[in-house]
Design brief:
Number of strands: 0
Strand content: under 5%
Number of helices: 5
Largest sheet: none
Structural class: mainly alpha
Radius of gyration: 13 Å
Helix content: 55-70%
Distance between the termini: 24 Å
Length: 98
């Protein structure tokens, strides 16, 4: 049941309660050097969703590469909330078996 609830939450990002830097837009989450100032937040997001859904998304890479994918999406779509960018990357990696 918990997996279903989190799967539904992943389908509708605007329904997820975000805290901390996850509430910010990508434009404000990216530091002056164009890197996310919330590395730990993104890692916590991936870890939390993986734990809640008994998944291993990101197991083929490391945290720096995951954050690099989120950063790239944020640079392309700076108006996104960081949580939405992290979610898109999570879903893409899950769907690709990464």
């Amino acid at each position: 049941m918990i997996g279903f609830v989190f799967a539904m939450a992943l389908a509708e990002p605007s329904q997820i309660a975000a805290f901390g830097i996850g509430q910010r837009t990508c434009a404000t989450a990216l530091a002056a050097d164009k890197h996310i100032s919330g590395y730990t937040w993104v890692m916590g997001y991936f870890t939390g969703i993986n734990a809640a859904t008994d998944a291993q998304v990101g197991h083929t890479t490391d945290g720096y590469r995951i954050v690099a994918e989120v950063e790239a999406l944020c640079r392309d779509e700076p108006a996104l909330q960081l949580i939405d960018a992290a979610e898109r990357v999570y879903i893409r990696m899950r769907d690709e078996g990464r």
